[in-house]
Specification:
CATH topology: Nuclear Transport Factor 2, Chain: A
Strand order of the largest sheet: 2-1-6-5-4-3
Number of strands: 6
Radius of gyration: 14 Å
CATH class: Alpha Beta
CATH architecture: Roll
Pfam families: DUF4440
Largest sheet: 6 strands, mixed
Structural class: alpha+beta
Order of helices and strands: HHEEHEEEE
Mean pLDDT: 92
Distance between the termini: 9 Å
InterPro entries: DUF4440 (IPR027843), NTF2-like_dom_sf (IPR032710)
Shape: globular
Number of helices: 3
Low-confidence stretches: none
Organism: Streptomyces luteolifulvus
Protein name: Nuclear transport factor 2 family protein
């Protein structure tokens, strides 16, 4: 099991707020955690931003009713930029239409501090292979 990293308080609050919004399926609130030009790469090799990002978040939350847990493996902060390596597990509605299924991955997230608030510039949940 990876060791939990001590995060600067503002980054820890950002991540807690994001997880709470994600788990409550609040697409508007989830979207508010990104810079205006921020991208998500929720489908490997297909980054989306702007209105496409907002639509993808809304569709994913509505269709899957996800529940996510995160554990920051590594965090690097320099000035107004941060890189987080995040182990995550998620429970979603099964594609077959019955029950739930579990997913896991390692995200590579780049955040920028904008007007004193940390926001995702790049959210890539499949940036690295999970540890066994």
């Amino acid at each position: 099991m990876p060791k939990t990293v001590d995060l600067p308080k503002e980054l820890e609050e950002h991540l807690e707020s994001y997880v709470a919004a994600f788990n409550s399926h609040d697409a508007e609130n989830v979207n508010s955690h990104y810079t205006e030009a921020g991208i998500i790469v929720w489908e490997k090799g297909n980054p989306v931003s702007g209105e496409d990002r907002h639509a993808a978040i809304k569709e994913f939350l509505a269709a899957n009713q996800p529940r996510i847990e995160t554990d920051v493996r590594e965090a690097y902060v320099t000035g107004d930029t941060a890189l987080l390596v995040v182990d995550w597990t998620m429970e979603i509605n099964a594609e077959s239409g019955g029950g739930r299924e579990n997913l896991r991955g390692v995200g590579l997230d780049v955040l920028r501090k904008v007007n004193g608030v940390w926001l995702y510039a790049v959210d890539d949940p499949f940036g690295e292979e999970p540890r066994d």
